[in-house]
Amino acid sequence: MEKSIKKHDLKKLHAGILDVLSDGIYVTDAKGKTLAVNRTYEQLTGLKREEIMGKLVTDLRNQGNFDVVLNPEIVSSGQKKSLVQVTKEGRRVILNGCPVFDEAGKVALVVTFVRDITLLSQLQDQISNQQEVIDKYREVQKRDKLKQQNGPVVFESQEIVQLMNVLDKVAKTDATVLMLGETGVGKDVFSRLLHQRSLRQDEPFFKVDCSAIPESLIESELFGYESGAFSGANAKGKPGLFEMADKGTLFLDEIGELPLLMQSKLLRALQDQELIRVGSTKVRKFDVRFIAATNKNLEEEVKNGRFRSDLFYRLKVAVLQIPPLRERQGDILPLASFFFEKYNIKYRKEVNFTKKFCDALQNYKWPGNVREMDNFIQSLIVTRDKEILDVSDLPHYMLRDAIDMDRSSLSDANKSLDELMRDYEKNLLKNALEINGSVAKVAKLFKVDRTTIFRKAKKYSLL
């Protein structure tokens, strides 16, 4: 028969059992005398066995080793209790104290399980951080759905039909796309359309306007930052747009406005699909499809040293040139009809327009492109009480472009200069009167007296 385990060996065995437990263990008797602690407790609190063994927990508290104790209340109540304790080194731990009763039903021991609340706080911060990303993603998706509800991309011109054919081919790849075009042509709309027709359509789409972010914040917005990276930073740190758009698409609008230093960092991110947050040394991988857009001539910017040539050629993989509205006449009236319907629904109106009104829109040059038309038609519907709009509701600067200056007569070699000038003036006045509807408005348009317009109109039998 094996010899019984000696008393001192049994104490070692008990200590060994305590040391294999993952929680910190602190054992006291009913008076609060420290009987045992394990290795995990030492690691969690920074307090050593030899410093606390045999001492009362209340004395240890009074000496500043920790701020609160459980034992007295558990002994008096006979109930379990939990609280948060802070050690002298500033470590925060959560205590779960349990009473152990003797044969008489009195509390003989108190066993306290100690867990690191710092780890729990870190996990909570990570969950909070991820929730912030999820909330932002949901907000972006919500905005996208609202935009999609406004209607599809409206076009009938051959120029946009050809552009869409190329866009569909490019969308099925992961190639970087560079969209070129004047301000207001719809680069934002076409970039979203490209994302919706890509294999990443169910993943996030983020847009960043490079011209709208202060230079000092661009890096942290794109790459993110760690806790304490700079004054005023979020205490939890923050993921950048590269991370938030992971698996999806990131649209870099007005990329020609990026400072040269950021162009260099962007180039590395594009090539390696890796980033380092501001204030960190950890490399993070991401998977993003990039679409860049600008209204600048990047080749000229490269020649003038304002844009990196290596970044330009890295972006110039699939180039989509979006023509201005004045070069796609077939889209003007479909777009106008679309915006009228959109804002009639939004403002609960039923505003329509005449053929002459349409002709004036068709002949206007639209220097602000689609964005100008969108804002202009919204303004008309908001500010006019009429159910049918005519050319008289258009501003003079639009009518100046809208007047059809018929130059066909100028090519007639059988007419003298006086005859050509007379025909030109007659046609000009005729079209102006038809569009404006009154002598007074035509006089204001051409900056002359009403009597001058009246006299010339009588001369040409226009009145």
Could you characterize what this model shows?
This protein is α/β, with parallel strands linked by helices. It folds into three domains: 7-117, Beta-Lactamase, CATH 3.30.450; 150-323, Rossmann fold; 329-459, Helicase, Ruva Protein, domain 3, CATH 1.10.8. It is built from 20 helices and 16 strands. It has helices at 7-19, 39-45, 49-52, 57-62, 71-77, 117-149, 158-171, 187-196, 215-223, 241-244, 260-272, 298-303, 309-315, 332-346, 355-363, 369-383, 396-402, 417-436, 439-446, 450-459, and strands at 24-29, 34-37, 81-86, 92-101, 107-116, 177-180, 205-209, 224-225, 238-239, 249-253, 274-276, 283-285, 289-294, 318-321, 352-353, 388-389. The protein has a five-stranded antiparallel sheet. Helix 14 (332-346) crosses helix 16, helix 15 (355-363) crosses helix 17 and helix 19 (439-446) crosses helix 20. The longest helix is centred in the N-terminal third of the chain and has 33 residues, at 117-149. The chain is elongated, with a radius of gyration of 38 Å. Mean pLDDT is 84; it is low at 146-151 and 404-410.
